[in-house]
Design a protein that fits this description.
With 334 residues, the chain is an alpha/beta fold. The chain contains 8 helices and 15 strands. It is globular and about 55 Å long. Bound molecules: flavin-adenine dinucleotide (FAD).
């Protein structure tokens, strides 16, 4: 876990803050589906590099695409995704379906002009459930195999809801990521820090081992340079760097409650969760354990009957007994 001095931003609970959870939060107008999967655009790979430690058990790459001269240029925001069309056909002889990959670049792209966009892709490698032969995911391995100079067919952008608000400076941000769910936060953190909005930004990144952390060096550097940025990690299969025991991403809510509870109690704060489907439930359960009721309901409206047995909450209850407010942004995938 790396640390930086706490930001000099008031984190006291705001009296009468209840209405904040119902307030509409204006998001930027974004372009979507400029290129459809059946009419993709050709981009060129300009960078492909491992973005974890080289000792990581999995293989995750940061891949950059040159989209200059296409209508994607300058039109792709972090929080959106792009479609990738792998060549070839599936078992039924149809062209491979499009796969979505979250944008990891900031609004200005990697180059500041919006012509280089990026994503974070993890190779899907497994055993076939029935035949126990090697299973290689089609598109993730295609993308990771691409070399600098190779062409790739892209569609999109997709998504208009998982975005930093238009008035970015009006909010503080608590980002939770697991796996490649870090991608949008790379772009968002770079945007927020570059634009010097002075918002308080806390990123919580969960991974099985410290070697799996993506862009770890970048986030540590940013945390050491910007007093308003905190980078907290949660390693689930080994001890933390400070010697404390293994923890999942949601356990950070409890372990770092001294700084996260005041932050969550501030009506400026928004929560973003991106990564493995199901992670949001654990985060909500931990929040229910540490937040006063009035603060919890700023983010999550809980059916009173469910409040008595938080440990038994399950994913089916999401959007029913557990309803997120406008201050929570979710982008989870399996
Ligand atoms: C909005 C969104 C954003 C995303 N962003 C990212 C991102 O930034 N980075 C990223 O890496 N991924 C991301 N994904 C996931 C990505 O779209 C792909 O699903 C992922 O890369 C796997 O695709 P693939 O073609 O490699 O695997 P596929 O060939 O599609 O194989 C995966 C599928 O095969 C099946 N399968 C898995 N294991 C086995 C097995 N052992 N035996 C038999 N069948 C099996 C499963 O049904 C699984 O759905 C995102 C998804 C969404 C919806």
């Amino acid at each position: 876990m790396s640390s930086s001095p706490a930001a000099d931003v008031s984190s006291n609970p705001v009296p009468g803050a209840h209405a904040a959870s119902d307030r509409e939060i204006a998001l930027p107008e974004v372009k979507m589906h400029i290129y459809r999967p059946n009419e993709p655009v050709v981009a060129r790979v300009v960078k492909s590099e491992i973005c974890t430690s080289k000792k990581a058990a999995g293989f995750t790459r940061h891949v950059e695409f040159d989209v200059s001269g296409t209508n994607l240029s300058g039109q792709v925001l972090p929080g959106q995704s792009i479609g990738v069309l792998a060549p070839g056909t599936d078992a039924k002889g149809r062209p491979h379906a499009v796969r979505l990959y979250s944008v990891a670049s900031p609004t200005g792209g990697e180059d500041g002009t919006g012509t280089i966009i990026s994503t974070t892709v993890k190779r899907t490698i497994d055993e076939h459930w029935e035949s126990h032969k090697l299973f290689l995911g089609v598109c993730s391995n295609y993308l990771c195999d691409l070399n600098v100079g190779d062409e790739v067919k892209l569609s999109g952008p997709n998504g208009k809801k998982f975005l930093v608000p238009s008035d970015a400076a009006a909010h503080d941000y608590l980002f939770f990521a697991t796996g490649t769910g870090i991608a949008p936060f790379r772009g968002m953190v770079l945007d927020l820090l570059k634009n010097k909005v002075n918002s308080r930004v806390t990123l919580v990144m969960g991974s099985p081992y410290a070697t799996d952390l993506m862009y770890d060096e970048l986030f540590r550097k940013l945390a050491s340079e910007h007093a308003n940025f905190r980078y907290l990690t949660a390693i689930s299969r080994e001890r933390q760097s400070d010697g404390s025991g293994p923890m999942y991403v949601q356990d950070r809510v409890t372990a770092s409650r001294d700084e996260l509870v005041p932050m969550l109690s501030n009506e400026r704060t928004l929560i973003y969760v991106c990564g493995i489907a199901g992670m949001e439930l654990g985060i909500f359960q931990k929040m229910a354990g540490v937040l006063p009721k009035g603060v919890l309901e700023q983010y999550l409206k809980v059916d009173p009957a469910a409040m008595s047995d938080v440990a038994s909450w399950n994913r089916k209850m999401l959007h029913r007994e557990l309803k997120t407010t406008k201050r929570v942004f979710l982008e989870v995938y399996s």
